[in-house]
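Title: Comparing notes on inverse folding

I've been comparing how different people in this forum approach sequence design from structure. To keep things fair, I'm posting one structure and asking everyone to reply with a full sequence. Here's the target:
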């Protein structure tokens, strides 16, 4: 699972230009039969090795940047033996005021952290 996490982060670094230490992942593994991920009507069959990724990030990147990120993640996963039809990505956006990195403060809103420029925007 660490290799999958690193593959995702490497794609984000390459495509979005975020700092290396902007690395926050939750890794959860589920046993056989505990994940249901069909093809949404696209006509392919997933294996039992499906990997579901949920990305939460600040709003503002264009569709092309997102598509480039999705492709980079799939390519990195292919290098680890994960087939493209087993890579499922959900992408959720929010605003700078929706983040707290600790201490109960919204560091972007308070100015403790500079709101990063969005690479690819």
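Reply #1:
Here's my take.
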């Amino acid at each position: 699972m660490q290799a999958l996490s690193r593959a995702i982060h490497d794609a984000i670094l390459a495509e979005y230009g975020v700092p290396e230490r902007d690395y926050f992942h939750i890794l959860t593994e589920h046993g056989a039969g505990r994940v249901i991920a069909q093809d949404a009507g696209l006509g392919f069959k997933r294996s039992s090795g499906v990997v579901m990724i949920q990305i939460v990030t600040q709003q503002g990147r264009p569709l092309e940047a997102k598509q480039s990120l999705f492709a980079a993640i799939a390519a990195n996963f292919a290098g680890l033996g994960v087939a493209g039809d087993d890579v499922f990505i959900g992408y959720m956006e929010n605003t700078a005021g929706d983040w707290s990195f600790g201490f109960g403060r919204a560091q972007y809103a308070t100015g403790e952290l500079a709101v990063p420029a969005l690479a690819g925007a």
